[in-house]
Design a protein that fits this description.
By secondary structure, the protein is of the alpha/beta class. About 30% of the residues lie in helices and about 25% in strands. It has helices at about 15-25, 25-30, 35-40, 60-65, 80-90, 130-140, 170-175; strands spanning about 45-50, 70-75, 95-100, 115-120, 140-150, 180-190, 190-200. The longest helix has 13 residues, at about 80-90. Keywords: Methyltransferase, Transferase. It comes from Sulfobacillus harzensis.
Length: about 200
């Protein structure tokens, strides 16, 4: 792959610079967590899949919300990211965090298993989207919700090239084709949009 400025990429090993970038406090301004958590609305005892979890930016707030009776399945193909999440979960004594070094296309989870799914700034980054969307449909319980947050399709100071970004309408059409229903579209932050999607 060409070496371009792709900080957010989940493919291959993370560089130290990328790890730093992902834990950067500026990120909270750029990508506030509160609206995302409010949209997903995790409840005590629920199972939530955090797909493309990175270093656990949202894994840990989700883990606190679902409690020890619940589970957050942090899924990422990056071994380094998964290891970082596992270590932090042990330090913070959060046994409800389970890590899976897997891809969105093949999570290894049982069917109708999770109450909620989060994809945070990774939709544009998925290799085989139809397959990954089908996989989300398979693992989500009926009535379960999937929150998708991604970069606005305009030039912003940071983030992926505009050529790989998707508008909410493009994403809506892809997920509806797979049988999902879009229940809400919202502004997630200064540079991101959100979609809340349900499995009928």
């Amino acid at each position: 792959m060409a070496e371009h400025d792709h900080h957010h990429h989940h493919h291959g090993p993370w560089t130290h610079e990328q790890l730093q970038h992902l834990e950067n406090p500026e990120r909270e301004k750029l990508m506030p967590r509160e609206p995302v958590l409010a949209a997903l609305n995790p409840q005590l005892g629920e199972k939530i899949a955090d797909v493309g979890a990175g270093l656990g930016w949202l894994t840990f707030p989700l883990a606190v919300a679902v409690g020890e009776s619940g589970a957050v399945l942090a899924i990422d193909p990056s071994q380094d990211g998964i290891r970082a999440i596992r270590d932090k979960a042990q330090q913070q004594q959060l046994p409800q965090v389970e890590t899976l070094e897997r891809s969105a296309e093949d999570t290894g989870l049982p069917a109708d298993y999770v109450d909620g799914i989060l994809w945070h700034t990774m939709y544009h980054d998925v290799g085989n989207r139809p397959r990954a969307i089908g996989e989300m449909f398979r693992i989500l319980k009926s009535g379960g919700r999937w929150v998708i947050v991604d970069w606005v399709k305009e030039n912003t100071e940071s983030g992926p090239p505009i050529t790989v970004r998707l508008s909410p309408d493009e994403v809506r059409s892809e997920v509806e084709t797979a049988g999902f229903q879009v229940t809400r579209q919202w502004k997630a932050g200064p540079v991101t949009w959100g979609l809340t999607v349900e499995k009928p």
